[in-house]
Amino acid sequence: MRILISNPKFRLVWISWLLGTLIGNAVQMTQSWLALDLTNSAFWVGTLAGFTGIAFIIFCTFGGVLADKFKRLKILLFGYTAVSILFFFMALLISLELMSITILIILSIVMASLEALKLPSYLSVIADLVDKKSLLNANASNFIAIGTSGIIGPVIAGQLIKYFGMDYVYYFGSLVYILISIALAHLAFNYTPPKVSSKESVFEAIKNGVLYLKNEKLLRLLIGMMILSETLGWTHMPMISVIARDFLGMKSQGLGNLLGFGFGGMLISTSIISITGIKIRPDIFATIGFIIFATCLSVFAINTQTWLSFLLLSCGYGFYVIFETVTHTTIQSTVPNDMRGRIVSIQTTTWGLSAFGGFPLGIISNQIGANYAIASSNVLLIISGLILGVIVIKSGRLKKLAIDESKN
Fold first, then answer.
1. In the chain, at which end, N or C, are there fewer CB atoms within 10 A of the end residue's CB?
2. In sequence order, which residues have a C-beta less than 8 Å from that of residue 349 and are 6 or more positions away?
3. CA of 116: how far to CAs of 30, 247, 346, in Å?
4. Which residues contact 193 (CB under 8 A, 6 or more apart)?
5. Using one digit for the tens of pLDDT, what is the confidence trace for 133-190?
6. What is the pLDDT of residue 97?
7. Is the CB of residue 333 less than 8 Å from the CB of residue 401?
C-alpha cells in the first residue's frame, strides 16, 4: 500500500479501479439475480453469462490493441462514461417494468463489450505510472481493491435490492461511474505516457502479440493455468445465485453477504502480500494457491452448511489471488511496453471464459444440479492444475520474480 501514498497518479487511477470493481461486483450479482427472477431457470442464468462471456472475449483482444495504440487513460475515461449511460438506461427499463430476459442479454452484451475494451488499458497503464520495483506492490494494491470492492459491492447490492429494488443498483452504478469519469478527466488529458511507435494494423498487432506469446514459455504456462481456472473454477460465479437460493436457502441479501465474505479472504491475502512481499519461490507459492482454490470450490459446491460455505469461499478466493498476483507481476515486469497491452488483453480475455462457461454449466446444472456441476468441474481443475503447476516449477523459470532480479 506504500505506493498509494507516494504516487498520486497511481492513487487516483487505483481509486477509480476500486470504485469501478465495486460497481462491477454489485452489477454482476444483480444481473444473475435478475435473470433468475425473470425466468426461475438456471439455464437462462447460464445463458446470460455465456453471451456476456463471448462478448468479453471478442472485445478484450481489440481492447489490448487500443491500449498499445492510443492513450490508455483516455480509453478508460471513454469506457466509464459510456457504461454509466448504459447503467442508467437499464435502470430505467427495470423501473418501468419493461425489462425482459432478451433485453437483459442484449444490454449485458453491450456492457461486457465496453468493459472489455477498457480493461487492458487499466492493467497496462499501471506499468506506465509506477517503476519496476514497485510493480508487485501496485498489483497487490489492485487485488486489495478487488477484495475490498468484492466485500462492499455485493453487500450494497443486496441491501438496495431488499429495500428499494434491482433498478437502484443500476442507478447507483451510473452515478459512481460518472464520478469516476469526472475524476479521471484531468489526468487523462494532461498526462503524457511513454511514447510507443507502431504503424501496425489492428490484425497485424493481434498477430504479433500471439507470436510474441508463442516464444515465451513461462507466459504461455501461466496464461494456460488462467484459462483452466476461469473455464473450470470461476464458472461458479454465474451459478452462485442458484447455489445460494436453492441449496443454502438465501435471499439476495444473503448472497451479497456470502460474496462479500469470499472477497474478504482475497483482501486479507493481498494485504499480507502488499506488506511482506513474496518470501518463498513464486512458482511454488502460485501453484499452492491455485490448487487450494479449486479444492475449496469443489467442497463449497456440495456443502449445505451456511457457515462452512462462508469459510470455504473466503479461503478459496484468498489463495487464488496469490496465483493471480504472481501472474500479473510477471507479465507487467517482463513484457515490453509496446507489446504489453496485447499480452495483457490475452490474459484478461481468459476472464471472459468464466462467464462463457455459463453455457455448458447451465445445461449440465439442469440435468444434475448446479452443485454437482460446479464440484465436478473443480475436481478437473485440481488435476489439471497439479500437472501444469509441476511443469512450471520444474521449468525453473519462475524461481524469482523479474522485479526481484532487477534489485540485484
1. C
2. 56, 57, 60, 61, 116
3. 19, 32, 11
4. 71, 72, 73, 125, 128
5. 777 777 778 878 888 898 899 999 999 999 999 999 999 999 999 999 999 898 888 7
6. 94
7. yes
What local confidence, expressed as pLDDT, does residue 23 receive?
95
Task: Please determine, for residue 128, whether its predicted confidence score (pLDDT) is greater than 80.
Answer: no
Cα distances from 4 to residues 1, 9, 148, 183, in angstroms, run 6, 9, 15, 16
Q: Are 50 and 362 in contact (CB under 8 A)?
A: yes
Task: Decide which of 1.20.1440.60, 3.40.640.10, 1.20.1250.20, 3.40.50.970 is the CATH code for 2-192+201-398.
Answer: 1.20.1250.20
Residue 196 has pLDDT above 70, yes or no: no
77 Cβ neighbours under 8 A, 6+ residues apart: 181, 184, 185, 188
Cell numbers describing residue 138: 501496485
- Across the chain, mean pLDDT equals 86
The one-character DSSP state at 251 is -
pLDDT of residue 405: 45
